[in-house]
Amino acid sequence: MKNNKKTTVLPYLLILPTFVFVCIFTIYPTIASFVGSFYQHRLNVPRYREPVFNGLGNYRDIFASADFRMILQNTFVYVLALVPLTILAALFFALWLKNKRFARLRIAIFHPTILPMVSAATIWIFFLTPDYGLFNQFLRLFGYSGAENWISNPNLALMALVLVGFWKEAGFYMIYYLAGVQNLPEDVYEALKLEGAGPLTVFFRFTLPLLRRTTLFVTTVAVIGAFRAIDHVIVMTSGGPSGTSTLLLYQLWKVRFENLNIGQASTITVILVMVLLLFTISNFLLNEKRGEK
Amino acid sequence: MIETGLKRKIFSTLTMGIGILIALLWSMPLIWALIASLRPLNEPFTRGQVWFGSGLSLANYARAFSLAPFGLYFRNTVFLVLMILSVQLVTSSMAGFAFAFYSFKGEKILFTLILTQMMIPTVALLVPNFQTIRVMGLYDTIPAMAIPFWGSAFGTFLLRQSFLGIPRDYGDAAMVDGCKWYQVLWHVYLPMAVPSMIAFSISTVNWHWNSLLWPMIVTQSDNARPLTAGLARFTQLGEIGAQWGLMSAATLIVALPLLILFLVFQKRFMEGYMNSGLK
Are A127 and A214 in contact (CB under 8 A)? Predict the structure, then answer.
């Protein structure tokens, strides 16, 4: 029950500081990016140093560019490869390590969360070095004899980023599943055991549906996180070779600070924001709908 | 019966054994970095020669400190993190309290507007935000890295949730006794929300200690640059090349402070993150 007596100005004042910062650094810039995306604005072209209205020109240019389509594709491949892989591993680790006797092992799986991505990526550059790099040596144990220089191989650079993201984040999402697993009703499992239900039946018929809320939450966080991934791109690949590991946010940064093309950078911002909002809102609606049943 | 007992024992040993193996493999990057950073300077890495060198030495750390002002970067990171955390705790507990304790016109809209910050990452809006920082005259200062995060949707959300779990009567009783809102918040609500405050603090400190892009965009001098941006620059110094011992030392200088805190307070850390999930 809420306090329904006279409304005063006080609650607004309490919210004000938070609201002001959200307005300045989230709401205003979102709107400014929309507006900016309709202008030609390039700091290195005298004619366009001041913004000139360009209608949908930026959008036309960007979608006509094969490079940009590749970057969009890279980003979706990155998200679609990383998120399911990470979530599956997180769930697997949580179910395996839920018992108290594994508490120490959980620390090992979780610790990459604490490392800065810059540090993690720097170490991984070494692991992925051709010849003496440890990751290749490890793969050779299993008979791997393929390409060794992951970072400068156009077919593998993006996968190298997925690999590092996977290693860094699986332990983080494991924590949420551990919290979810602890809330599962013990007695149901006891009953299932007595009835002789196999582990696969238990997993698919009970564990997975009962963890649906956790999965939804983790998926949302993981997808937003994957779209904003950039640190390992900067440290490991610089988006190369020839753009094959460039992700959307990295491109946005490059267009703004290397090409000094503010109009186009705003357009990319709008695309990124739209993708994120579409995803979050549809996810939310889907959840609401299912929750009603 | 004996047979199932034996089976269970084998199973439990097996899961532990494989678990330890996976945990070891998972920690390999960190273990390797620790060992490699202790090699003597300039010993080349070749196949089979990537772990211990001819002896243990701290020379790589000394070299890293002489090539870049990591002490200064460390100070900047600490300032940055404290500047964000202290303000966020104040703004978020005020906003969380308002949303949990009062009902007022436009409450839902205001809450939704604040939550957009969780959907649209601040770094994605780097084009206009960089401009704002410029206009504010803050470029290349520590506040430039901190101010965009002074309002926190996540903090507001988390503390609101936690305040909603506190029986209303407590607050009402205090109000009837003539307490001001800040006394109610300070003496009644905050003490009961300590686990959430800790959870939030841990995630904020971790997040901003490790962030790279925004600090890199708004700083250009060593006086403002934090550890992460310093390391990114360091790895790109031409003279460093494939000196992996030196690289790992620099990497660990950046990562170790938080990592040590984590190992000391691991239970707190992990529980903190568990508490910050949805309830």
Answer: no
Question: Against a cut of 0.90, is the pTM above it?
Answer: yes
**CA A51 to each of CA A43, A263, B67: distance values in angstroms, whole numbers, following the listed order:** 9, 8, 42
Q: How far is CA B186 from CA A19, A64, B81, B189, in A?
A: 21, 57, 23, 6
CATH superfamily, domain B68-236, is: MetI-like (1.10.3720.10)
User: B-chain residues within 8 Å CB-CB of A234?
Assistant: 212-213, 216, 232
CA A160 – CA A121 distance, rounded (Å): 10
Angle at B220 (CA atoms; ends B214, B224), nearest 5 degrees: 80
**pLDDT-derived band at B105, boundaries 50, 70, 90:** very high
Query: Alpha carbon of A222 to those of A280, A286, B209: distances in Å?
Result: 11, 17, 20
In this structure, are strands A39-40 and A52-53 parallel, antiparallel, or unpaired? antiparallel
Q: Which residues pair with A261 in a beta bridge?
A: A42
Indicate whether A68 pLDDT > 60: yes
Taking CA atoms, what residue in A is nearest to B152? A18
Q: What is the pLDDT of residues B210-236, one digit of tens each?
A: 999 999 999 999 999 999 999 999 988
Task: Tell me the CB-side half-sphere exposure of residue A117, using CA atoms within 13 A.
Answer: 23
**Could you tell me which residues come within 8 angstroms of residue A270 by beta carbon, excluding any fewer than 6 positions away?**
A33, A34, A37
Q: Where are the domains of chain B?
A: 2-57, 68-236
Question: CB B232 to CB A272 under 8 A?
Answer: no
Could you tell me which CATH class the domain A66-292 is placed in?
mainly alpha
pLDDT confidence band for B145 (50 / 70 / 90):
very high
CA-only gyration radius of chain B, Å? 24
Using the CB atoms, write b or e for B123-149: b if 16+ within 10 Å.
bbbbbbbbebbeeeebeebbbbbbbbb
User: Do residue A249 and residue B278 have CB atoms under 8 angstroms apart?
Assistant: no
What six digits make up the tokens of A257?
């600070």
Could you report the predicted ipTM of this complex, rounded to two decimals? Answer: 0.91
Beta bridge partners of A3: B102
Q: Who among A26, A134, A180 is closest to B125 (CB)?
A: A26
Report whether A272 contacts A72 (CB < 8 A). Answer: no
Q: Is the pLDDT of residue A182 over 80?
A: yes
E-only strand ranges, chain A: 39-40, 52-53
The domain locations on chain A are 66-292
